[in-house]
Amino acid sequence: MRELTLPLAAESLIPHRLPMRVVDELLEVDGKKASVSAEVSADSPFVDANGKLDDIILVELIAQGHAVLNGYYTQLESRPVREGFLVGVKKAKWFGAAYAGEKLLIEIDTLAEVDAFSLAMGQVWRGDIMVASGEIKVWAN
User: Fold this and answer.
1) Residue 132's domain spans which residues?
2) In total, how many domains does the chain have?
């Protein structure tokens, strides 16, 4: 088993590349939980003319945060990065807005895993303000 030192660049853990990659770094891992950072740039296709992130991208932040956690464990085992697909969103809630250039924190908690499917809960934070939360279902190849 490999040894990895945090923080780790998200790009080394997931297949996503800019402009579709919206997460930046894996900050912490505690079993099936993780903290991931993101700072979406103003030129991202997910930002409107006023600099506001599209609400739906907050769900994608949760999905990519979960992918980064999975990528961490894949890298520990020296296996190649896996592709995955967001196959469901449940209990998504928006509590506020996020803007380009803001440092966001994504908290991920994997609730269940069955074969190639995972169920995870995620929260997106802007400082001490939760801007979104939701439960996602993911299939990983």
Assistant:
1) 8-140
2) 1
